[in-house]
Amino acid sequence: MILETLQLGPVGTNAYIIGDQASGAGAVIDPGDDARRVLAEVRRLGLRVEAVVATHAHFDHIGAVRPLVEGTGAPFLLHEAELPALEVAAERALVFFGITVPRPPSPDRLLREGDVLTLGGQVFRVVHTPGHSPGHLCLLGDGLAFVGDVVFQGSIGRTDMPGGDYDTLLQSIARHILTLPDETVLYNGHGPATTVGRERRTNPFLVGLAPAPGS
């Protein structure tokens, strides 16, 4: 498996390029900015981008979606509950942060809880993880997960933006993150990767938070 991390944009959002070296199949997750840099890395790796996935529609995760989709012809995938946020993403970026981003395209496929995707030769299950945003999703794979802005090393996603809710975010983490094996690597939207076990033991927001039963 090929897995490359690029820190992009004014807040250093992690964009991920994943791929299968044998087949050349690839995908991009959360391309927040600088499509030319993403495309250059894709070419260097010899990958064919077959999907562009956003964990949610905040500007720093979708800023390069339009040029990347236009440059590769790949479909854009997003959770169905995130459509309202996508429609105002460019306006919110300008109003709240003074940042201009290209207006994102409409998704080619709307994702739902339980969908299964093959990205870069790897199989991922889509889980709906609201709290940071209403339609936030995580991608759970074999020994790893792409978790966007749900949980970070030592912290969790902010909940003060429109559609955010602290209690809902903790419920999402309890249901979908803390039920994963401790060795699962969490690739998040900002900062270094971490593991479920590390966050369970040391994250001040999660210490004592019990996994949701039956998840």
Explained architecture:
The protein has 215 residues and is α/β, with parallel strands linked by helices. The protein has one domain: Metallo-beta-lactamase, Chain A. Helix content is 26%, strand content 29%. The protein is built from 7 helices and 14 strands. The chain has helices at 35-45, 59-62, 65-72, 83-87, 89-97, 166-177, 196-202; strands spanning 2-8, 13-19, 25-29, 48-53, 76-79, 109-111, 116-119, 122-128, 137-140, 144-148, 151-152, 155-156, 185-188, 194-195. The strands form 3 sheets. The protein has a 6-stranded mixed sheet, with helices on one face. β2 (13-19) and β3 form a beta hairpin. α1 runs parallel beside α3 (65-72). It is globular, with a radius of gyration of 16 Å. The model has no long low-confidence stretch (mean pLDDT 95).
Task: Lay out the secondary structure.
Blueprint: E1 2-8, E2 13-19, E3 25-29, H1 35-45, E4 48-53, H2 59-62, H3 65-72, E5 76-79, H4 83-87, H5 89-97, E6 109-111, E7 116-119, E8 122-128, E9 137-140, E10 144-148, E11 151-152, E12 155-156, H6 166-177, E13 185-188, E14 194-195, H7 196-202
Helix pairs in contact: 1-3
